[in-house]
Amino acid sequence: MEETRPPLLEVQDLHVEFRVRDSTVRAVNGLSYTLAEGETLAILGESGSGKSVAAQAVMGILDSPPARVSRGAVRLRGEDLLALPERRRRRLRGDRIAMIFQDALSALNPVFTVGDQISEMFQVHRGMRRKAARAEAVELMDRVRIPSARQRLDDYPHQFSGGMRQRVMIAMALALEPDVLIADEPTTALDVTVQAQIMRLLRELQDEMNMGLVLITHDLGVVAGVADRIVVMYAGSAVEEAPVRELYRRPAHPYTVGLLRSVPRLDRGGEPLVPIKGSPPDPAALPAGCPFAPRCPRAEEICTRDRPAPARVGSGEHSAACHFAEEVYGAVSQ
Hints:
This protein has helices at about 50-60, 85-90, 105, 115-125, 130-145, 150, 160-175, 190-210, 220-225, 245-250, 255-260, 300-305, 325-330; strands at about 10-20, 25-35, 40-45, 65-75, 80, 95-100, 180-185, 210-215, 230-235, 235-245, 310, 320. With about 325 residues, the protein is an alpha/beta fold.
């Protein structure tokens, strides 16, 4: 019998909390997902849903204290990253798993040239001499389509536009050709044309390297064009997971339905947008039952009392953590 290979990346029952004075803020509450080679998984949700904190936990770059991973596993090709010594995990960052941050200007060091910052990856992880590392940096800048790469090698981050700085970040993240790339809001604050260019570039590089991509965003438009699967997060946990087309066509969680109805669509011109009422719960005082119940138009007594487990609906790949997932799935056609 052929042995089943583990997923490229597996996040299982991840919990992250922050100890703040006399309270505990539960930022991530039992998040689980898998990622395959060459796949794009979008993690979608409002600000404060725990998307970026979960990504930092996967990368091992949380500020601790006050943050700590209280439970769970993060496996890269079957190897649990959370159980590794910090020195070993530091060697894996950039080499096998890398991250693009949402604010390139803050993520790049303002006192070093972009050439020095890119070439450092090759010097630290590959033991290259400075001249050879700088040659690799030029090649990478060409690869991400930064014009006049050799002439711009000694420029500083503030001398680049927002879109070009994001390309520098992509070059740094892909320098060592990692197996997994986590992109945290990679098109934030960029205009629509530049957003499309950045996403197209990421897709081309992903196809070239057969890399797994975790795309963290709140932009439903970006997700629709690039993702294979979507995990919808709310209050630190996954409330729905499905292939992208099925989730857009027939969502099975009231929160996902609310998200889709709160954005304009070309095929439904003239229809009023329907905002989700209320605000997300305080992560330091989460409700006992479903965290979305206080805002949910379908909530009943069981929703305030019992936290729903993910239930399968439709295809075998579609699940939603809702007591009435089957009813929502059957009633809604987006």
